[in-house]
Design a protein that fits this description.
A hairpin with a 6-residue loop joins strand 3 and strand 4. By secondary structure, the chain is mainly α. The protein has one domain. It is globular, with a radius of gyration of 19 Å. The chain contains 10 helices and 7 strands. The strands form 3 sheets. The protein has a 3-stranded antiparallel β-sheet, with no helix packed on it. Strands 1-2 form a two-stranded antiparallel sheet. Helix 2 packs antiparallel against helix 3, helix 6 runs antiparallel to helix 7 and helix 9 packs antiparallel against helix 10. Bound molecules: zinc ion. The site of zinc ion (ZN) has 6 residues, from loops.
Length: 284
């Protein structure tokens, strides 16, 4: 194994094959579209080339757990109802793959060039937020109680942007902590992360950044995100098309779609992760 890892060309080939296989399996399971599978294969290989087990391990932890939750009780009535409101349903496409993993890859590349624990903490925050948001969406859709808007607290239909449930919020916290625990397990294996950091700082940074990211996601979804109404069936949706016709924009900016909202929330979570890292770092 040592020989393979020391040879950059062989490592690149193995990384491409490995992430290509995961991308293909996800495509066959309809978790990714064809463009999403290609994006995931390239992105996964880049993570392996630029970072150690913490970097690609957290990406895989996010990907496998979110795929699991998205397939969990897929046929459930309330989940199908929520899914009808999303801009994109079914497999994730390339834009969604880059919106979820692109910022993390940037931090991974920066860390390869300028190794510093704050970049690792920023990455932890980003991945915790992305994971918290996905778990909250997939598990929260199964809530028995109707979601409420975070702004104004009025009851709305499942799947509405900016709405929260107790189940979804609990799932967000669990998703954030899951990334923190995965990071703690992966750190001893990773030569690129040989920092002397208290485990509580890792778990705390992931939990705080992940929950803050999920809250930011809901606040943006309730305020500035573009929301449309279908002229045919009357459904409020994130999508510009419904029932085969163009929908009418009710509020929000056209460019402020779900991918932009997710990306903004993960930037904020990255800053919070790095901020907690600054507090936790030993004084020099
Ligand atoms: Zn419609």
């Amino acid at each position: 194994m040592r020989g393979i890892l020391d040879n950059p060309l062989l490592l690149a080939v193995c990384a491409m094959l490995g992430s290509g296989l995961i991308g293909y399996a996800a495509y066959r399971k309809a978790a990714l579209t064809a463009s999403g599978a290609w994006a995931a294969a390239v992105m996964g290989a880049a993570y392996v080339m630029l970072g150690g087990p913490v970097w690609f391990g957290l990406l895989i932890a996010f990907f496998l757990s979110s795929t699991f939750w998205s397939k969990w009780k897929r046929r459930h009535r309330s989940k199908a109802k929520a899914e009808a409101k999303y801009a994109k349903s079914g497999g994730r496409d390339a834009v969604q793959v880059w919106a979820n993993g692109g910022l993390g890859l940037l931090l991974c590349a920066l860390h390869a060039l300028f190794p510093h624990p704050l970049l690792m903490f920023g990455f932890l925050g980003v991945m915790a937020a992305v994971n918290a948001d996905t778990w909250a969406t997939e598990i929260g859709a199964l809530s028995r109680s109707k979601p409420r808007m975070l702004l104004g607290w009025r009851k709305v239909e499942p799947g509405t942007s900016g709405a929260v449930t107790l189940l979804g919020t609990t799932a967000a916290a669990a998703g954030a902590l899951f990334i923190g625990i995965a990071a703690l397990l992966l750190m001893p294996l990773d030569g690129t992360i040989a920092y002397d950091i208290h485990p509580a700082a890792i778990a705390g940074a992931a939990a705080a950044a992940g929950i803050a990211g999920a809250v930011a996601d809901s606040l943006l979804g309730a305020s500035v995100q573009a929301i449309y109404r279908c002229g045919t069936c009357g459904l409020e949706t994130e999508s510009e098309m419904h029932c085969g016709t163009d929908t009418v924009r009710m509020r929000g900016a056209v460019w402020m779609n779900n991918d932009v909202v997710n990306f903004t929330a993960s930037c904020l979570a990255g800053l919070i992760g790095a901020g907690i890292g600054m507090l936790a770092m030993p004084v020099q």
